[in-house]
């Protein structure tokens, strides 16, 4: 490696105690078990998936390197108990595991929003892992890491974002095949632009599915306003 290449490599290498962060902000948790709680969101940059309905594509690139100590200090400055680590795909950055552990050590109620395409086994057991199983209409169904299901506990949650009836029937079969409702909370959400929430609600009720219907509370309140 020549001097110029070495210099460029050093400049782009990830510092040992840092993560690339898109944003940190205070809002209401809009989804899952902690919906409604004032929460700090730590959004990590980067994602190996490209779901067709993704609403956070701005987190694919950019961001700033932040020291973990600095991240913790900013979280503490918001003065709330709940913290959600999200993305992008947070687990695409290996040091996310350390951040999650330190947030738990600091006494926060911590959740992790992850695509389910990466191994969740190293995540601190104090973290509630919200595993997003990708449906056929997402365009990324082949990326599901099914081995993660065996790692789920009652502390975790599974989410399906559904784009239509075919997705619904597929997800219904996955829940039954893997006994997901006996492992943890299962959440069915309508894709904002592709499925009428009332249709999904009616299907769940008609089939008496052991799942929770949910909508994104923050989008009902603030639409797609950044940082909300």
From TrEMBL:
<keyword id="KW-0479">Metal-binding</keyword>
<feature type="domain" description="Radical SAM core">
    <location>
        <begin position="34"/>
        <end position="228"/>
    </location>
</feature>
<comment type="function">
    <text>Catalyzes the complex heterocyclic radical-mediated conversion of 6-carboxy-5,6,7,8-tetrahydropterin (CPH4) to 7-carboxy-7-deazaguanine (CDG), a step common to the biosynthetic pathways of all 7-deazapurine-containing compounds.</text>
</comment>
<keyword id="KW-0004">4Fe-4S</keyword>
<feature type="binding site">
    <location>
        <position position="43"/>
    </location>
    <ligand>
        <name>substrate</name>
    </ligand>
</feature>
<keyword id="KW-0671">Queuosine biosynthesis</keyword>
<comment type="pathway">
    <text>Purine metabolism; 7-cyano-7-deazaguanine biosynthesis.</text>
</comment>
<feature type="binding site">
    <location>
        <position position="51"/>
    </location>
    <ligand>
        <name>[4Fe-4S] cluster</name>
    </ligand>
</feature>
<keyword id="KW-0460">Magnesium</keyword>
<feature type="binding site">
    <location>
        <position position="47"/>
    </location>
    <ligand>
        <name>[4Fe-4S] cluster</name>
    </ligand>
</feature>
<feature type="binding site">
    <location>
        <begin position="53"/>
        <end position="55"/>
    </location>
    <ligand>
        <name>S-adenosyl-L-methionine</name>
    </ligand>
</feature>
<dbReference type="InterPro" id="IPR013785">
    <property type="entry name" value="Aldolase_TIM"/>
</dbReference>
<keyword id="KW-0411">Iron-sulfur</keyword>
<comment type="subunit">
    <text>Homodimer.</text>
</comment>
<dbReference type="InterPro" id="IPR024924">
    <property type="entry name" value="7-CO-7-deazaguanine_synth-like"/>
</dbReference>
<keyword id="KW-0456">Lyase</keyword>
<feature type="binding site">
    <location>
        <position position="54"/>
    </location>
    <ligand>
        <name>[4Fe-4S] cluster</name>
    </ligand>
</feature>
<keyword id="KW-0949">S-adenosyl-L-methionine</keyword>
<dbReference type="InterPro" id="IPR058240">
    <property type="entry name" value="rSAM_sf"/>
</dbReference>
<feature type="binding site">
    <location>
        <position position="88"/>
    </location>
    <ligand>
        <name>S-adenosyl-L-methionine</name>
    </ligand>
</feature>
<feature type="binding site">
    <location>
        <position position="56"/>
    </location>
    <ligand>
        <name>Mg(2+)</name>
    </ligand>
</feature>
<protein>
    <recommendedName>
        <fullName>7-carboxy-7-deazaguanine synthase</fullName>
        <ecNumber>4.3.99.3</ecNumber>
    </recommendedName>
</protein>
<dbReference type="InterPro" id="IPR027621">
    <property type="entry name" value="rSAM_QueE_gams"/>
</dbReference>
<feature type="binding site">
    <location>
        <begin position="28"/>
        <end position="30"/>
    </location>
    <ligand>
        <name>substrate</name>
    </ligand>
</feature>
<feature type="binding site">
    <location>
        <position position="86"/>
    </location>
    <ligand>
        <name>substrate</name>
    </ligand>
</feature>
<dbReference type="InterPro" id="IPR007197">
    <property type="entry name" value="rSAM"/>
</dbReference>
<dbReference type="Pfam" id="PF04055">
    <property type="entry name" value="Radical_SAM"/>
</dbReference>
<keyword id="KW-0408">Iron</keyword>
<comment type="similarity">
    <text>Belongs to the radical SAM superfamily. 7-carboxy-7-deazaguanine synthase family.</text>
</comment>
């Amino acid at each position: 490696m020549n001097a110029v290449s070495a210099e460029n490599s050093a400049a782009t290498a990830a510092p040992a105690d840092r993560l690339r962060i898109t944003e940190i902000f205070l809002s209401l948790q809009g989804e899952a078990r902690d919906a409604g709680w004032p929460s700090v969101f730590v959004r990590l940059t980067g994602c190996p998936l490209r779901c067709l309905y993704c609403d956070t594509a701005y987190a694919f690139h950019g961001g700033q390197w932040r020291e973990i100590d600095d991240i913790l200090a900013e979280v503490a400055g918001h003065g709330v108990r709940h913290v959600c680590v999200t993305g992008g795909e947070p687990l695409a950055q290996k040091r996310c595991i350390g951040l999650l552990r330190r947030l738990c050590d600091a006494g926060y109620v911590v959740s992790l929003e992850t695509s389910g395409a990466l191994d969740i086994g190293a995540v601190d057991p104090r973290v509630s892992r919200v595993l997003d199983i990708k449906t056929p209409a997402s365009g990324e169904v082949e990326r599901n890491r099914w081995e993660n299901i065996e790692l789920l506990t009652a502390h975790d949650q599974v989410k399906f974002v559904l784009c239509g009836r075919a997705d619904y029937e597929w997800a219904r079969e996955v829940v039954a095949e893997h006994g997901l409702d006996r492992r943890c909370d299962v959440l069915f959400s309508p894709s904002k632009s592709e499925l009428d929430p009332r249709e999904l609600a009616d299907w769940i009720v008609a089939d008496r599915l052991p799942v929770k219907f949910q909508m994104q509370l923050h989008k009902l309140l603030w639409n797609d306003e950044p940082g909300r």
